[in-house]
Amino acid sequence: METVTLTHTAALARLGHALSDETRTRIMLTLREAPAYPSDLAEALGVSRQVMSNQLACLRGCGLVEAVPDGRRTWYRLADSHLAPALNDLLRLVVTVDPTCCSSEGCTCR
To answer: What is the pTM of this model?
Structure first.
């Protein structure tokens, strides 16, 4: 088993922060399929371009996505090839969690 370091815990905390917001989670899940332009992401997720810009900035700051210049435009992709399989694993794990446990009103798990 690999030794857990402060770097590992910081990385997991950043991922947890990123996934704590529904829009950021949807962005990450969309980017696991393929890179995308912010305007296309905004349209697909039904949010404004400003909201998309703010959320992508957060995800960049967390080191989870990266911006790739493409002429006058920029597209985004997951920053690490391990993220897509990890997100897929998390999706399988979530199936076993009670969806009513932690809602927007707070955690009711006991």
So the answer is: 0.82
